[in-house]
């Protein structure tokens, strides 16, 4: 497909996150917490006990660092909230 002025069109963005995809962060979350992330059918944040919320936050920090993002917020894309 051609873009403007006959140049090749740039690829369009997808809804899927870049990098390692969804599987690895979700498996890693399960390893670190003992339960599935929300995007994989696990409990949502508001359903967690205070202790589980601490484990959730710690796991998200580890996963974001392992993925090279260094921001806990990015894990919502991969894991859900």
Mean pLDDT: 82
Annotation, overall tally of beta strands: 0
Order of helices and strands: HHH
Structural class category: mainly alpha
Shape: elongated
Number of helices: 3
Task: Describe the overall structure.
- The protein is mostly helical.
- It contains 3 helices and no strands.
- Helix 1 (23-33) crosses helix 2.
- The longest helix is centred in the C-terminal third of the chain and has 17 residues, at 50-66.
- Mean pLDDT is 82; it is low at 10-19.
Describe the structure in brief.
The chain has helices at about 25-35, 50-65, 75-80. With about 80 residues, the protein is mainly α. The model is unreliable at about 10-20 (pLDDT under 50).
Present the secondary structure layout:
Layout: H1 23-33, H2 50-66, H3 75-79
Helix pairs in contact: 1-2
Question: Which key terms come to mind for this protein?
Answer:
3 helices; about 40% helix; single chain; elongated; about 80 residues; mainly alpha
